[in-house]
Design goal:
Belongs to the TRAFAC class OBG-HflX-like GTPase superfamily. OBG GTPase family. YchF/OLA1 subfamily. This protein has three domains: 3-47 and 64-114 and 200-278, 3-Layer(aba) Sandwich (Rossmann fold); 127-192, DNA polymerase, domain 1, CATH 1.10.150.300; 300-363, Ubiquitin-like (UB roll), CATH 3.10.20. It is built from 14 helices and twelve strands. It has helices spanning 14-24, 48-57, 86-95, 120-151, 155-172, 184-192, 219-230, 240-246, 251-261, 267-278, 303-310, 312-316, 326-332, 335-340; strands at residues 3-7, 40-44, 61-63, 66-71, 98-104, 201-206, 234-238, 281-287, 291-298, 318-325, 345-347, 357-363. The strands form three sheets. The chain has a six-stranded mixed beta sheet with strand order 2-4-1-5-6-7, with helices on both faces. The structure holds guanosine-5'-diphosphate.
Length: 365
Amino acid sequence: ALTAGIVGLPNVGKSTLFNAITQAGAESANYPFCTIDPNVGIVEVPDHRLTKLTELVQPKKTVPTAFEFTDIAGIVKGASKGEGLGNKFLAHIREVDAICQVVRCFADDNITHVSGKVDPISDIEVINLELILADLESVDKRIGRVEKLAKQKDKDALAEFPLLSRLKDALESEKPARTVEFTDEEAKVVKGLHLLTTKPMLYVANVGEDDVADPSGNEYVQKVREFAAKDNAEVIVVCAKIEEEIAELEGEEKEMFLSELGIEESGLDQLIRAAYSLLGLATYFTAGVQEVRAWTFRRGMKAPQCAGVIHSDFERGFIRAETVSYDDLLAGGSMAAAKEAGKVRLEGKDYEVKDGDVIHFRFNV
Ligand code: GDP
């Protein structure tokens, strides 16, 4: 499964946020295929469509889809030089698919800041620079080898060399590799380099309790937003401390607490949805009387692959996907009505599944 790694300097609220994640934790019995690891927190992906489908179908059970966050502790200045837990830290980042960088945007004199004062942009730059330096090392190693081959007129090397030079230029001017544009061909080469700064990045601005309802007065958040805009990255505002409390609540209790705080959705739920879509993930549903359930797929996946998310037998024996869009099903009011209205399609193996499709797979066993 794809996972988003949580990183940040010491004392910015990572552990607090990760606690909230494990606290909110998904019913693990429902997700036997998820990673069991103390550093991985499995959360349910909030989706209002699942509530509507449950009302409509009245199943015995409803199961949301899940998403994994990985806690990556231990970045310090100098990580790329292998200081402290540096190397280990970078190795862990290499394994995740997206990065959620927690940034301290709360003032609290009781909590020490590693560099002496709250300055989110300088914090971000410390971390991003470590990632950039690590990538520069990878690119430099590769460029050395490729340059030799290019001199011997090796065709692949001749093609790769200018790409590596572009990457090197970007990294040397302290820009992440994700700001460089690649062709599809080049993207394959870049993938093989296992760079850190090609991973999508999301900034999690951790604000104080007083700023949750309206963070617009928090100048740190404004700065992070401006920075992220240049970096093509998204910003989610949370108060990790409050998220810990919210995570203990469910249903009506949770809604009441949120409305007392003056917010519609918890910061954690926003973060989950943002990370999910940042990774190119989408949701389809199965809706039977036994169980209404949400399933995760990668955008662009075809019907048989999506069937394989449920079980590999479904993919192997795939025949057809009886498909209706969530909107059409809701408008019809029942599966039977949607069928009558001609909204239920029989899709074959080349069908590209869309977010919100409600599917019944037919397959051979
Ligand atoms: P980590 O080192 O990044 O994992 O940071 P922690 O989660 O351990 O948080 C460091 C300190 O900041 C702890 O004392 C937390 O209680 C406190 N803290 C975390 N989030 C908030 C917040 O939103 N507001 C305030 N006032 N304190 C926070």
